[in-house]
Specification:
It contains five helices and seven strands. It is α/β, with parallel strands linked by helices. Helix 3 packs across helix 4.
């Protein structure tokens, strides 16, 4: 039997995420980008959101689908913005989050990524990754996307926004995608 190329269909409107996925998965797993946004359920659990979206899209598009839901969970703000990170980013931006943090000493946070994979008529499978860090006092740098210019990863003094080629060192999404990669490469072929 001829080896066929393993492919996934990654549904997202975020080109930064596509770049990260391709860096981690290709060439062993081809990443087909389906540029689209889709409705998400409301939940405090990133994994639940990703699994639900993957299932809905796999049924609708009749394809193997991968989605990713990530968020910045700030301890001093009771894990806000969390699963609402994209909406909060659009509404108040990085400066708005920093305004909420004004005068707050404890700046610990966690960046979380939930990746979900689903085939039509099958149950979705989820993979989680996270990275601890702290919130910067100001917006620093222009690399990366989303909350990168205010997130300082543990063990660093720079924000992700200050690090060139940040996609290569970001570990929260990479951890989740590597779990997906391992699953796909070890999955029995049909």
């Amino acid at each position: 039997m001829k080896n066929r190329i393993l492919e996934i269909n990654f549904a997202t409107s975020n080109l930064g995420k596509v770049k990260e996925f391709k860096q981690i998965l290709e060439p062993e797993i081809k990443v087909n980008h389906i540029k689209m946004s889709y409705p998400e359920i409301r939940s405090e659990d990133s994994g639940e959101i990703a699994r639900h979206s993957a299932k809905e899209l796999a049924e609708k598009l009749k394809k193997r689908i991968v989605v990713e839901d990530s968020g910045l969970f700030i301890k001093a703000l009771n894990d806000f913005p969390g699963t609402y990170s994209a909406t909060v980013h659009k509404k108040i931006g990085l400066k708005g989050i920093l305004k909420l943090m004004k005068g707050v000493k404890g700046r610990e946070c966690v960046y979380r990524s939930a990746v979900a994979y689903c085939e039509p008529k099958k149950k979705p499978i989820g993979f989680l990754g996270e990275e601890k860090g702290k919130i910067a006092e100001s917006v620093r740098g222009s690399f990366g996307f989303g909350h990168d210019p205010i997130f300082i990863p543990e063990g660093s003094s720079k924000t992700y926004g200050e690090i060139k080629n940040v996609e290569e060192i970001k570990s929260f999404r990479r951890r989740a995608v590597l779990k997906l990669r391992k699953y796909l490469l070890n999955k029995p072929k049909l």
